[in-house]
């Protein structure tokens, strides 16, 4: 057997990295500090636990870069995507999952793999020998975070990630709310009715904004700064940017018709989505918040249909750290100062479950190839995975580096296609077609070795 690959962190990235490397014949050890060392956001000791949304976002692999990343991971036999498909919930054009069975299935599959073992306990120092992947995610322990800071000689960047509340479905007034996906999107009735909608009049919206702005908020500790990632802004931060911001964000009323009052056009709409297969829990879409618990219940019960809502989980906020990857990592995702260590997942400055798992997939394959004495180039630039890893390992401006979702703005232009909104559909399809060819070639070259 080859020498071990050690992976610190059993989240999305660590789980996917372990699966990929183990399937290449490498012996893998996952070092997971939970449940011995808990975090504020996690509830269990399961691997690949989902702590924020239960959505992997768009599954459209022709017109959406996230969906294209889904496609690439499926082609690479990714455990995260295969398990997500197994525990899929109706969510319009999105891929949402039943979070607890999802994490339990990933954990069972990794535990059962003959090339993988899991060791529980915290690692707080950077290893000097062996092959390692650090995939500790947004909640890297204080000890390991300090060790990373000491090694890189740079301050770890930080922002705050906010968690959306979850509501018990049977506490919602269905005489007010109705089920409908925006623009009735989806091929089945379940997909077309994947969201629960709560309408607001102009007066109700204005009163809600007033209460939101006046509510007690979580205070930050001395020395901490609130540099939010725009894809996960707390609702009160959005409201503070302008009274209409939420109406053009998560509360936009377009593409919806109130089945109770078809002639009434809502001024704003709050949407909720299934958080488990039974449909007993719903999360409030885009409603990450840093309001204190007492204020949350008061403000959220101002939403029509949620006047008597019971909450399975209230929103929260936590620190999220990531390294300045463009200056610290090489194209193989190795720490330049210690090339026996790779980084993967959200700590590298990617944002989202899918992006984190994708970076784990790539790091796992690169590390395994190195252990096996093979030469494996990183993902092709014109693929979704390649565009993302290129961004974090050199494509982004290190001075302004911030967490990034995968998006077509990271892709190289296709010659002969016009820009602008009118040409977007053809352009995105061309990006996707090109990526699929390049990705399949990359995978095929590995299978031929």
From TrEMBL:
Organism encoding this protein: Shimia litoralis
Name the UniProt record assigns to this protein: Methylenetetrahydrofolate--tRNA-(uracil-5-)-methyltransferase TrmFO
Keyword Nucleotide-binding: no
Gene name of the encoded protein: trmFO
GO biological process, one term: tRNA wobble uridine modification
Needed cofactors: FAD
Family the UniProt entry places it in: Belongs to the MnmG family. TrmFO subfamily.
InterPro entries documented for this protein: FAD/NAD-bd_sf (IPR036188), MnmG-rel (IPR002218), MnmG_N (IPR040131), TrmFO (IPR004417)
E.C. number: 2.1.1.74
Purpose: Catalyzes the folate-dependent formation of 5-methyl-uridine at position 54 (M-5-U54) in all tRNAs.
